[in-house]
TrEMBL record:
Keywords: Lyase, Schiff base. Belongs to the DeoC/FbaB aldolase family. DeoC type 2 subfamily. Pathway: Carbohydrate degradation; 2-deoxy-D-ribose 1-phosphate degradation; D-glyceraldehyde 3-phosphate and acetaldehyde from 2-deoxy-alpha-D-ribose 1-phosphate: step 2/2. It comes from the Bacteria. It holds the Pfam family DeoC. This is Deoxyribose-phosphate aldolase.
Length: 303
């Protein structure tokens, strides 16, 4: 597809009915579930968490502690599932890989000048290759939102293609920073752009900009992956990230996935939750269901 054809396709996508999307998201979020289903939902949500530390003060010790929690979220209960991935900066990938050896937990790494996405392409590719060489199984790249908002859709597309190539065997998650994209039309457009460029996952946010993940934005992205799969046969995952803090929030997202994309997306392979602070609430609610009492917020280790 030429650049002009790509632009024509993306700009020709149907507009999003924002009021309709917001009403549908609110309606789905209001659904209640039975206690037995809640227990299953909590374990599923835990298994979908990408446990993350992305601070300038990150240390090898902090990453090792996070990896220990990822593998054994509640050391007193071996029945608690492990999380899906641990996400760190590229220079700490090797530490995480060593700490998670034998657990089956994926090491993800933000790359491509996270969180701004503003760097020369060669720097982004070098960042990506270094993380993959250190053992990252997933790369979370950020798009150049300035280029996208300026209408340079081809540049954004070509950068994703180049990063996808640099990932080699690693999966590519493409972060949109939807809080900066202004409209749901832009969310739909960038979702299709990223999927056509080879993204394995599309992700709402870096967690550094507000608003981060929202139900309406995630609904639009889920519709996009559903329609893309119907059109091409290729399945792409979705990851809302940032602002998902409670078990109630997480379950709302699981309902949204089931009712929009379908049950096939209800697995860590195709849906993730980028919300490290969420894990402790999931663990608290899980213990409440099994014991009848809350353990308290200080029972589990802080991330």
């Amino acid at each position: 597809m030429s650049g002009s054809e790509l632009r024509a396709f993306l700009l020709g996508l149907p507009g999003v009915d924002q009021v309709g999307v917001e009403e549908r998201a609110a309606r789905l979020a209001s659904r209640s579930i039975k206690t037995s289903a809640k227990a299953e939902a909590i374990d599923l949500a835990i298994s979908m968490v990408d446990l993350t530390t992305l601070e300038g003060a990150d240390t090898p010790g902090k990453v090792r502690a996070l990896c220990a929690k990822a593998a054994h979220p509640d050391p007193s209960d071996p029945g608690v599932p492990k999380v899906a991935a641990v996400c760190v900066y590229p220079d700490l990938v090797g530490v995480a890989v060593e700490a998670l050896e034998g657990t089956g937990i994926v090491v993800a790494s933000v790359a491509t000048s996270f969180p701004s996405g503003r760097a020369p392409l060669e720097a982004k590719l070098a960042d990506t290759r270094a993380a993959v060489a250190a053992g990252a199984g997933e790369i979370d790249m950020v798009i150049d939102r300035g280029a996208f908002l300026a209408g340079d859709l081809v540049k954004v597309f070509e950068e994703i293609v180049a990063v996808r190539r640099a990932c080699g065997p690693a999966h590519l998650k493409v972060i949109f920073e939807t809080g900066e994209l202004v409209t749901l039309d832009n969310v739909r457009r960038v979702s299709w752009l990223a999927m056509r460029a080879g993204a394995d996952f599309i992700k709402t946010s870096t967690g550094k900009v507000a608003p981060a993940a929202t139900l309406p934005v995630t609904l639009v992205m889920l519709e996009a992956v559903r329609d893309f799969h119907a059109a091409t046969g290729r399945r792409v995952g979705v990851k809302p990230a940032g602002g998902i803090r409670t078990t109630k929030d997480a379950i709302k997202y699981l309902v949204l996935v089931n009712e929009t994309a379908g049950a096939d997306w209800l697995s860590p392979e195709w849906f993730r939750l980028g919300a490290s602070s969420l894990l402790n609430d999931l663990l608290m609610q899980r213990r409440k269901l099994s014991t009848g009492v809350y353990s308290g917020p200080d029972y589990f280790s802080l991330d």
